[in-house]
Amino acid sequence: MTIENRIQTFSSLGKQLSNLSKIEIAELSRRAQADNQWFTPQSVEKALHGLAYMLGEDKLHQWVSRYDEIPVEIPKIVGIIMAGNIPLVGFHDLMCVLMSGHFAAVKTSSSDTFLTKTIIDWVLEIEPRFKKNIEIRERLNNVDAIIATGSDNTARHFEYYFKDIPRIIRKNRTSIAIINGLESKEDLHNLGKDIFTYYGLGCRNVSKVLVPKNYDPKPFFEAIEDFSEITNNHKYQNNYDYHKSILLVNGTEHLDNGFLLWQPSDQLVSPISVLFVEEYESDAELDWKISSNSEKLQCIVGHGRIPFGKAQSPEVWDYADNVDTMEFLKKLS
Fold it and tell me: What are the structural domains of the chain?
């Protein structure tokens, strides 16, 4: 199969995803929620449209043109251990393996089994020749390389278990936003998208904002007011109620708008429904705060960086942890 065949397959998948009706998305979500109660119609629709955005034919050509010698001549068996924090978060790894010409041995997350298998079925319907390149497995024995995504704890296990083969092991990451006080209402509203999309469960979700000293958060709270419906999800509401009670019992400084808790903290990763906030007094201090956490950051949102509202709209060439998956796969042969 040529690289053009592969590009056309995923381009066709993107078009199929773009044309899904609201009824079809609702049915996919209904079945996906059996695996994961966070997979609401809004989250599933966002994930599917995000993939469609990524799979434009021109973008796929632009992406693969960066790599020579793909598909590889000698395929390897590449194990993929997928996460399940947001819908179809493991798709990009699967596409990279198939695009590179290797064999994908997939271990789906128990939190995202239905959607992952559905997407694989659609890929095989579009291009049946991929059947010899994909297998869903319970155990990833006898693989030549591994791509695994998990928590910091599971990453240590993966590093030990797969220490003798080439590997990409991903750990916990999060994203931050930088506010300079000159943001428009639209900027701040778009920041709400970066915070609340997928209920804050993704590594590209903003879990902390860096703000100028003595920053007034009132414009921010006013701009995000229409995200209040997020509490219609009982799991988010339960998180909000729990963390609010902890802050109140402990007398911890915070602000509360009824669905988001604004908490000053030097920590990086906030719980669901909590936004950590830290002040800076100079550009030099800001740069230091960012560089000291660089290994834990997936996205930095703000002026001159990822635009507000775009953290959850990655391009096909935006790699998790900034590790070039295609270059890794190319070198396996």
Answer: 3-172 (3.40.605.10), 174-301 (3.40.309.10)
Q: How far, in Å, are 85, 105, 132, 148, 329 from residue 141 at the CA level? A: 24, 10, 18, 14, 19
User: At what angle are helices 113-126 and 3-18 packed, to 10 degrees?
Assistant: 120
Condensed to tens digits (0 to 9), the pLDDT of residues 215-264 reads 999 999 999 999 999 999 999 999 999 999 999 999 999 999 999 999 99
What 3-state DSSP class applies to 62? helix
Cα–Cα distance measured from residue 268 to residue 132, given in angstroms and rounded to the nearest whole number: 43
Q: At what angle do helices 91-100 and 3-18 cross, to 10 degrees?
A: 150
pTM: 0.94
276, two tokens: 């950590």
On the 0-12 / 13-18 / 19+ scale of CB atoms within 10 A, 45 is middle
